Structure formats: C-alpha cells, structure tokens
Fold this protein.
Amino acid sequence: MCKGLAALPATCLKSAKDMKHRLGFLLQKSDSCDYGSSQGKKEKISSSQRVSQEEVRKWADSLENLIHHERGLAAFRAFLKSEYSEENIEFWVSCEDYKKTKSPAKLSPKARKIYDEFISVQATKEVNLDSCTREKTSHNMLEPTLSCFDEAQRKIFTLMEKDSYRRFLKSPYYLDLVSPPGAGCGPENCKSSHTHTLDCNSNIISQCA
C-alpha cells in the first residue's frame, strides 16, 4: 500500500523538488522567448510604417490632405472608431471606391449596397443626412450613375470637416504623431523637425487595411 510522500527517502524528495524547479524555469524561459518574438514582430511592423513629420503637419492644413494620405486616413479612422462614429469616413471611402467603378453592369449593385448600408432608413451604419439630400439620393437609385452619391458625400465631408476633424487635431491620435514623446522645442529640434521621421502609433496603424 502507498504510505505517501513521508515514506519516500529524503534523496527522492530532493530530486523531485529539483526537477520541479527546473521545469518551472524552462516554462518561464519559453514564455519569455515567445513574448520577445512577439515584440520583435511588432517593432518590425512599426519600423516599416513610417511617415515624415512634415507630412503629418500637412494633415492639419485640411481634411482633404488628411484623408487622401494612407496613414492619415488610418489615424482619422481610428479616432472616429474611438468615438463610435466611423460610419461617416466609411461612407466617404465607399463613395470614392464607387466612383472608380469601370463596369456599367456593376454600378447598380454597388450603389444599392452603399445605399442600404449608409442611407436607407434601415441602414446598419446610417449617416446623418438632411431629408432633402436623402430623398434626392434615393431618387438617384432608380438609375445609378458614377455621381449619384456626390451630394451626400459632400454633405458628410463638410460634417466631418466642421466637427470630428477639429476634435481629431486636438486628440492624442494626432498630437502624438506631430509631437512625438521626447521631442523638445529648442531651435535645433524645431529646425530638424521637417526631416525627422517617426513611427506611427501601432494602435492606429492596425486599423489600416
């Protein structure tokens, strides 16, 4: 019958404890290596996604400069997502993509998809349009053209320009890029700011597709 650990020789107990400690050390080392590997991958991704500070400063000149730059669009998108209002920029991007449609046969189904997703009363991501613009866009669905969403897109652009864009410029999503941590305000730093490059915040860039 088993008499428990007390019946085992002291040398056996010591060996068992030593084995336990070694296994614990190996497991910790394995976890540490996995973490280091993960961090290395993140750093590689970040280092390949650079944007000059001069370019970042241009984003403050106009909303158009911001959203026509791949990294700027990603940053603005991430900001809007944090405010639960990303439907506006998603609608604008969808309209830009729609206007590049070359096949006439694809216009109607693509237009209907955009309408159902952003403009219809039952839209899952309904954008804020006045009744007149909404009715006009609905009428355009009868015979979709490349310009059928132009007015609605302009209204949403203006809405973002006057509201969310201004908040974005005051948010960490922009300020952390235009004034990276550790950057001073001395003459030398200011003079070299136009040639300095910085890594985009990894949380922002992960929204870019």
